[in-house]
Amino acid sequence: MALLAVLVLAACSTSHRAVTERPGKAAAATPETPETPENAKPGTADWQVRRKGAEHEIEGYADRVSVLPGQSFRLFVSTTTSGFTAEAFRMGWYGGANARRVWRSGQVPGVRQAAARIDRKTRTVSAPWRPSLTVATADWPAGSYLIRLTAASGAQRFVPVTVRSTDTAGRVVVLNATTTWQAYNKWGGYDLYGGPSGFSDRSYAVSFDRPYDKNGAGKFLTYELPAIALAEKAGVPLAYATDNDLHADPGLLSRARGLLTLGHDEYWSTAMRRRVTQARDQGVNIAFLGANAVNRHIRYEATPLGADRLVVCYKDSAADPVSRTNPAESTQDWRLPPKPRPESDLIGIQYMCFPAEGAFTVHRPDFWLFRGTGVRAGTRFPGMVGPEADAIAPGGPTPPTLEIVGRSPISCGAGTAVAHASYYTTRSGAGVFATGTMRWVCAMRGKACGHGVDEAGRAFVTRVTDTLVRAMAAGPLGRSHPSRPNTKQLTAAP
After folding, report:
1. Contacts of 291 (CB under 8 A, 6+ apart)
2. 381-419 confidence digits (pLDDT tens)
3. What's the CA gap between 467 and 455, in Å, rounded?
4. What value does the CA radius of gyration of the chain take, rounded to a whole number of Å?
5. What span, in angstroms and rounded, lies between the C-alpha atoms of 404 and 484?
6. Could you give the CA distance from residue 400 to residue 156 in angstroms, rounded to a whole number?
7. Which domains does the chain have, with CATH numbers?
């Protein structure tokens, strides 16, 4: 025990040895030599996890989901090796490199920390570890970051952290779907979908006080990074936040130009939904670049490391004790009792199918976002719909100005269905666009996305999203691009 204490103290003492990376040899910023814009700085090619190593060889988590620029956070790291180093990469557009290293630690002594702790009542997994080092974010610009941990053996894992923007006024807010990352996090053997026996012994609440499974950042890399890089390449004013920030900050979107929710943003609290709805009604544009968004109702609770670090979702009102005392806060699908509030009221369409598979099929080729892409009615882009898809909500609620712009026949489980992409505008001038497919962001990678996505699909998605982001940044979309409702014609068709 004495040796362990010495190692932990040694680890904590290493934070003063952190090195800030300053690529290149540009002169200090002066009125004559302005500082290089962030996305024009040289990227870092070596940022990926090269070898995951054995289970528990290296893993860690941060005590903050997000911090403001200049604030510190602590890393909790466990390794079976003699030591590790940590590097911070800002993720985005750097001439296609997708990352820039902004910081690296010195060598930190390794400690094998305690095993996972499981709460018997809610089957919540946590990692009751001691902090390994403190990381200061001085000179880190706002953005989405991955901390890469590298063990003495060469094994690596990511720890995601967002440096959130101090001001969103006049900016398009990029939202990291942190609650959804955590819902699917199986580290310790449990997530909101299952435990050792399957769905019956799933967690009822999941904690940020533990590492992420697999490489540590799988959902961010698949469903978010390509869209963030594209938005940064467009050069429009952006701001950065997480689901946790949207829940905690009533004014986050009050003066923003737009909100980008990315490929998979499924788990929303009452406060998150209320604030986005209010923002829309004040003229803030919204883009849902995925499917299955706002499908699950959650509550936040505190953990020993702070507020809003526990995501509660029983997925069954009968199991949630709050359903009897405060039905509006019961945690199941938003559209289900005891107080149904279908997500189509905000998105326009809503979750319809899993597993879904099919080609994205253009319905309205003259839709303003499709201009310049060369599409015609019926143009198909293989593989772009899946693995979950949205559609018009049977019986509503459906915004009266809803315009269906994509209508895609797909396979849905053992049967068939039709997925939709939609757009609507409001009296406030806000425009709300929804792709209706979870594979929209992935398709920005072209053939690397798999599933039959090709270069034509990549070019289409990239062009449409670039046009969208630029238009959102210019102001309320409805003023120059009012929607043209057509749902009555579609639902009346045989």
Report:
1. 264, 351, 356, 388, 389, 390, 419, 435, 436, 437, 438
2. 999 999 999 999 988 899 999 999 999 999 999 999 999
3. 18
4. 23
5. 9
6. 50
7. 7-19+40-256 (2.60.40.1930), 261-295+343-492 (no CATH)
